[in-house]
């Protein structure tokens, strides 16, 4: 425990001394999370991004679908804050619209993908036997089947449907590798004594999975989810080729970046606003993820070993 | 004295860079000398710096450690030598024996080669000669069939045999000093006795000085000449072993000695416990580091740290009050520690907030004891009959073939009456853990029957809704495991951990009960928001005990509940368990390999060997008059923390390792006759061929012994005459 935390622990006990309240794990982790400046900063940035994405469009008179036939490929100006595109769309309005889409798609798909990976992997690992074999067979199947093939086949079915379906698809092609890792971890955690202790206490297997196994691999899951946010935002563009999700004239950060990359040097305004926002998003998510991980870890004392060398004596 | 000392350590300090740039002092001023042929024990608990100090002496610390002072080996300063010079001295001049030999032996070398290589590093000999010498050494340390075993790999040896190999390697180059770091800690008692004997042989063969680092005062009593007791990185008392045990001069040493459960003490004697836990190095302040736990502390103790002062010939103690002639063993108030004087030491507020607070005793309630007189002999809470648990042993990873059977539990019968304690004693492989898990998992046994709280498990597991019907049984039986750090989910705060059994069994409001439970085991309600990691070992075990008590069970299975704890906090846990049993009328199934602890807690004992009970009955009667040869050997192998008694005791050293419960397919011979035969000293001493024949042909059944309520499984219970015992005294 660091000196700083000693003080905090003291405060904690001092605070709770008069009327000891038993807090749940969630409250304690939240409290420790809120003590991490970087993590809170990340959270604030994310909130601001959402605010920007949903309030931003009203600040400008341009709509992302509008085209200004007087201005093609003009740089930033008072009328077009971020300039215009080849066909005269307002880059600011498009970026805001893209941010809206990407934030939701990225966060949702990431959480969904990691969640499915965690549940499927942990279930397979914990129960073993047939459950394990069937689930892993399914995972392997999804891994070897090329995702674009499935997309090509199913594409007519989904065409033009809501973009939520698109989020689900994005997650569906993303969770398998993590699920395999989770399964491995679950298999070794299953042998740990605290799991045995819960079993002989009569705790329900599903509760063991959600309450003991998954929290004990929180580091892996959080890192995975964090990486997924950036990954899905980019991956979304490649799926757009198949006619999914974000279709012109609608835009996402991914499509803006993909379109703007070629002209990044000549017409930087097409590229940079979306690029910077994407980086900010990914960074903010990483800070939040890190903070969450630390908050969970240092509660459990696994992040930095609190044992001193002398303890080994 | 210093002229003939082979190893002389003077004012050794070791510190590691700590967090926030504050160095952590692991060793703070250790001095000692050892002469040839002498054994010095360095005694201490975790964090006392005992291991770090010897690692520092031989230059095996990570480079970020800062070491000052002086370490002289035969007059030559070792600190500051470079790696090359140091490794020449290591091995040839100073040898090490570690606790875990598997990690110290290179897995890809045959043990003979490893020893030969060690010889050739330091000496110019041909590889043949080195190999021959290696085989000789293996023979010296008692490896059977050394020429053949020299060609085996480390993993093919058992723990005890590996430790012998380590010792053979250590003496390969005739060292002047052997540093043995907890050499027997990971081993079974009977094997520990063997290894101590081998160490004694090694000492004789080489005439080396031995520095024995240990936490086990029993081993010290039997094996060492002098001892240095370390606490919080400093030596607090040094003395000849006899004097140390007879009249300790420092409260910590005295407390340790009087808190030990002893084989030669009676059942249920209340142990004196030292409150609190060993301090962590990061939170040492000014003053005596023992002051928060010391019953004799005065104001001076909290401000000034006492020096280690010479108080007699070869004796020194670090305590401000040494000169006052206090009766340390009796405690400050003069009463003999039978009352609950260990409950009156108020926890120190200062250290309390630091995550490793002191450990107050649960308030003992004498009046409750009078009311809740245990209903001894009432209906049984657990009945086990002829329990069998075998599992197949397979080989090959692609195509698995069955090559034998692990007969983990092979016909065990037990009874526990409400409110009483049954101890299950055995070495590794005896099947005690398997038995316990069979009971706790509440499955239908493979063979035999188990009935928990009057509910037969086979009947329970039939029909529909097994899970639901099993819940009331699960609520009635709880478990505490050996290592609380492993058995408490590190990611749950204590409040959630304690609420888990309550929620599982459908109790809505948990906060009140959680608080009650914490207080019951001597913790504070505010501890509910901390994580297991933030507690000391003893406190964690208290949390585990609190969790076990959450549903008011009638039977608690205690699987080695104090083995993983520091010596000074064990007494507190044992006292707590005794209080809880008295107040709540609990029945305990107490699993342990530590016979001294068992002696202290058990009403009845069952001695397990190879999945069978070999002796069973009233604890007093079994401990005072053991009848089965195995029980006798076990009891004689347990070191008694009293050098006078220990050195005169007759010792039965069992040959070999605890055998494995594996029976290969088609090996009918293994199942014939008494399975203890290979190690049985009585069998080996039997003279009449027909008596031996009986052991060889017929498996002895448990038969009643005497008139007491006990039984043993041996054909020759009456044939035991002390003259038959091959005795050998360690040291
Ligand atoms: S110096 Fe004081 S606190 Fe330390 S052991 Fe002696 S009496 Fe106890
Ligand atoms: S039956 Fe024979 S071999 Fe078995 S314990 Fe008795 S004397 Fe030893």
TrEMBL record, chain B:
Chain intervals with Low complexity compositional bias: 353-368
Keywords: ATP-binding, Cell membrane, Membrane, Nucleotide-binding, Transport
Membrane topology: Peripheral membrane protein
Transport as UniProt keyword: yes
SMART domains: AAA (SM00382)
Domain of life, source organism: Bacteria
Main location class: membrane
Region span, Disordered: 327-368
MF terms in GO: ATP binding
Domain ABC transporter: 7-257, 382-635
One Pfam family in the UniProt entry: ABC_tran
Subcellular location: Cell membrane
Family as reported in the entry's similarity comment: Belongs to the ABC transporter superfamily.
Protein name in the entry: ABC transporter ATP-binding protein
Organism in which the protein naturally occurs: Catenulispora pinistramenti
């Amino acid at each position: 425990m660091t000196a700083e935390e000693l003080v905090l622990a003291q405060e904690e006990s001092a605070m709770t001394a008069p009327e000891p309240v038993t807090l749940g794990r969630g409250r304690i982790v939240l409290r420790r999370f809120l003590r991490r400046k970087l993590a809170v900063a990340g959270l604030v940035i994310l909130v601001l991004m959402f605010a920007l994405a949903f309030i931003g469009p009203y600040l400008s008179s341009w709509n992302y679908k509008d085209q200004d036939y007087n201005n093609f490929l003009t740089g930033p100006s008072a009328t077009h804050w971020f300039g215009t595109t080849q066909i005269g769309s307002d880059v600011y309005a498009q970026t805001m619209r893209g941010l809206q889409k990407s934030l939701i798609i990225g966060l949702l798909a990431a959480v969904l993908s990691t969640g499915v990976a965690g549940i499927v992997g942990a279930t397979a690992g914990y129960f073993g036997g047939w459950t394990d074999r069937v689930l892993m067979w399914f995972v392997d199947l999804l891994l070897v089947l090329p995702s674009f093939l499935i997309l090509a086949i199913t594409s007519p079915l989904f065409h033009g449907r809501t973009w939520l379906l698109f989020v689900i698809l994005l997650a569906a092609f993303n969770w398998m590798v993590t699920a395999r890792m989770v399964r491995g971890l679950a298999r070794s955690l299953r042998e740990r004594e605290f799991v045995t202790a819960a079993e002989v206490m009569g705790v329900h297997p599903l509760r063991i999975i959600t309450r003991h196994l998954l929290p004990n691999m929180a580091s892996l899951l959080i890192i995975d989810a964090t990486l997924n946010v950036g990954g899905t935002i980019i991956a979304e563009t490649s799926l757009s080729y198949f006619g999914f999700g974000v279709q012109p004239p609608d835009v996402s950060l991914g499509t803006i970046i993909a379109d703007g990359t070629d002209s990044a040097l000549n017409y930087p305004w097409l590229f940079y606003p979306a690029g910077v926002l994407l980086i900010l998003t990914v960074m903010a998510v990483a800070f939040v993820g890190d903070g969450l991980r630390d908050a969970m870890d240092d509660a459990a004392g696994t992040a930095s070993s609190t044992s001193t060398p002398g303890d080994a004596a | 004295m210093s002229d003939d000392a082979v190893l002389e350590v003077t004012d050794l300090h070791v510190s590691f860079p700590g967090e926030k740039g504050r160095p952590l002092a692991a060793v703070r001023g250790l001095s000692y000398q050892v002469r040839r042929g002498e054994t010095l024990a360095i005694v201490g608990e975790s964090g006392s710096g005992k291991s770090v100090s010897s690692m520092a002496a031989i230059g095996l610390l990570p480079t970020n450690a800062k070491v000052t002072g002086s370490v002289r080996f035969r007059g030559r300063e070792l600190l500051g030598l470079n790696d090359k010079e140091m490794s020449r001295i290591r091995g040839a001049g100073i040898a090490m024996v570690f606790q875990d030999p598997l990690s110290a032996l290179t897995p890809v070398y045959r043990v003979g080669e490893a020893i030969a290589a060690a010889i050739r590093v330091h000496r110019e000999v041909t590889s043949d000669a080195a190999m021959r010498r290696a085989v000789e050494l293996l023979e010296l340390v008692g490896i059977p069939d050394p020429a053949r075993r020299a060609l085996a790999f480390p993993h093919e040896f058992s723990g005890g045999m590996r430790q012998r190999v380590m010792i053979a390697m250590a003496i390969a180059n005739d060292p002047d000093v052997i540093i043995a770091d907890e050499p027997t800690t990971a081993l079974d008692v009977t094997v520990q006795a063997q290894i101590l004997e081998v160490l004694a042989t090694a000492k004789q063969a080489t005439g080396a000085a031995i520095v024995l680092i240990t936490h086990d005062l029993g081993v010290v009593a039997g094996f060492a000449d002098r001892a240095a007791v370390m606490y919080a990185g400093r030596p607090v008392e040094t003395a000849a072993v006899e004097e140390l045990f007879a009249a300790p001069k420092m409260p910590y040493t005295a407390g340790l000695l009087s808190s030990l459960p002893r084989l030669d003490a009676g059942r249920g004697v209340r142990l004196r416990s030292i409150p609190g836990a060993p301090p962590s190095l990061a939170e040492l302040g000014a003053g005596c580091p023992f002051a928060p736990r010391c019953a004799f502390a005065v104001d001076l103790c909290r401000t000034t740290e006492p020096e280690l002062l010479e108080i007699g010939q070869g004796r020194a103690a670090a305590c401000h009050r040494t000169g006052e002639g206090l009766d340390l063993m009796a405690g400050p108030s003069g009463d003999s520690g039978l009352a609950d004087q260990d409950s009156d030491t108020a926890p120190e507020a200062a250290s309390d907030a630091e995550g490793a607070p002191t450990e107050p005793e649960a308030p003992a309630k004498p009046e409750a004891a009078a009311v809740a007189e245990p209903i001894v002999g009432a209906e049984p809470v657990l009945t086990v009959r002829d329990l069998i648990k075998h599992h197949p042993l397979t080989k090959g990873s692609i195509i698995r073939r069955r090559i034998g059977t692990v007969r983990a539990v092979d016909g065990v019968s037990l009874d526990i009456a409400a409110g009483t304690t049954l101890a299950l004693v055995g070495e590794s492989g005896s099947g005690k853990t398997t038995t316990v898990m069979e009971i706790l998992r509440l499955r239908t046994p493979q063979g035999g029957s188990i009935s928990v709280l009057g509910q037969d498990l086979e009947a329970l597991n039939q029909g529909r809704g097994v899970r639901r019907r099993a819940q009331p049984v699960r609520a009635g039986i709880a478990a505490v495991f050996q290592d609380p750090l492993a058995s408490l989910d590190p990611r749950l705060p204590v409040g959630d951990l304690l609420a888990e059994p309550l929620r599982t069994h459908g109790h809505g409001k948990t906060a009140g009960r959680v608080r009650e439970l914490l207080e019951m085991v001597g913790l504070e309600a505010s501890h509910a928001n901390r994580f297991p990691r933030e507690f000391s070992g003893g406190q964690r075990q208290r949390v585990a005990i609190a969790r076990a008590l959450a549903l008011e069970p009638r039977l608690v299975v205690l699987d080695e509940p104090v083995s993983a704890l520091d010596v000074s906090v064990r007494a507190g846990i044992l006292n707590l368990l005794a209080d809880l049993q008295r107040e709540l009328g609990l029945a305990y199934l107490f699993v342990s390999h530590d016979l001294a602890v068992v002696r202290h807690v058990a009403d009845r004992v069952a001695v397990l060997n190879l999945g069978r009970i070999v002796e069973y009955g009233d604890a007093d009667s079994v401990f005072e008059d053991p009848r089965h040869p195995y029980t006798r050997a076990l009891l004689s192998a347990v070191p008694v923390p009293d050098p006078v008694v220990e050195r005169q005791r007759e010792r039965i050293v069992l040959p070999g390792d605890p055998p494995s419960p594996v029976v290969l397919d088609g090996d009918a011979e293994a199942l014939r006759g008494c399975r203890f035969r290979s190690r049985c000293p009585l069998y080996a001493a039997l003279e009449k061929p027909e008596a031996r024949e009986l052991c060889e042909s017929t498996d002895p059944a448990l038969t009643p012994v005497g008139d007491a309520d006990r039984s043993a499984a041996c054909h020759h219970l009456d044939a035991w005459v002390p003259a038959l015992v091959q005795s050998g005294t360690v040291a």
